[in-house]
Write a structure and sequence with these properties.
binds ligand NAX, about 20% strand, globular, three-stranded antiparallel beta sheet, six-stranded parallel beta sheet, Lactate/malate_DH_C, about 325 residues
Amino acid sequence: TRTPVNVTVTGAAGQIGYALLFRIASGQLLGADVPVKLRLLEIPQGMKAAEGTAMELDDCAFPLLKGIDIFDDPNAGFEGANVALLVGARPRTKGMERGDLLSANGGIFKPQGKAINDHAADDIKVLVVGNPANTNALIAQAAAPDVPAERFTAMTRLDHNRAISQLAAKTGADVTDIKRLTIWGNHSATQYPDIFHAEIAGKNAAEVVNDELWLADTFIPTVAKRGAAIIEARGASSAASAANAAIDHVHTWVNGTAAGDWTSMGIPSDGSYGVPEGIISSFPVTTKDGKYEIVQGLDINEFSRARIDASVAELVEERDAVRELGLI
Ligand code: NAX
């Protein structure tokens, strides 16, 4: 029998945590034949609610779930972790400046990065969901010098999935017909969903759409502002769809992209496409055998270039700000 994979989830008592843990335990994160042990990491105020969630996980009698432990100490929470989903973060509250937000999150992601460095398993893979996800991932990565930088990733898969869904609705295509969509840049309002290399049932998506006005004025803002639209409608931020995207991100990273397709992941830049090395930016990637590679050689038109550059500039500002704060 296989040794269980240790999966640490931070923010386990939060709304994404609640939508995520049952899917991990049922085998959807890593595969239907992979046993898992869950390590829930919370802050002291979240421990009781996490215990409640753990009771419900027990009550599912999931065949693949081989243990649940709950911690409020990051060193213990990341002990032996093979996969870490960093969901818990400090949200922006009213009147909070960007610097305050970044330093509050630095207080979470720096110690967590150090704890991953010192306690996680050698094959650790990290996905940061908690916002600002790209820069939180950078802070954690910088605090973990003994872990290969490429193991730290940030989630733009929800944006990727949202873009596929919007494109399918516009063109009447099935979501499964849409391939090679890309989210570039930051998981923020500046992100750039790129359909110029995407395909709809084998045809170039931009040609099928053939409507630059829709692209600029409807598609891009709808995808980028979808989070706010969900809050407006639901009275709470995206949770099940965010959890679903986290499942997709890790599942694709571990199990590979389909032939002829790619996905979007926030990853440390190697300088490809003019994105400054080291910042954690979203790229088109293929995955195989637990590793990812940036799709190379795409022709970037002027429309795309301006938007990629704008989002990357925001990431550079965030990096400079956390550098200034001594967080990296
Ligand atoms: P909730 O406020 O429901 O839950 C957050 C949980 O994290 C709480 O239980 C809290 O106690 C815990 N927590 C806080 N600090 C912690 C720490 N240092 N260690 C461990 N746990 C800690 O938020 P939820 O709706 O679950 O969202 C979580 C994060 O995901 C937020 O930062 C949110 O902005 C971000 N999102 C990111 C998305 C993405 O696409 N990258 C989309 C969805 C979501 O908005």
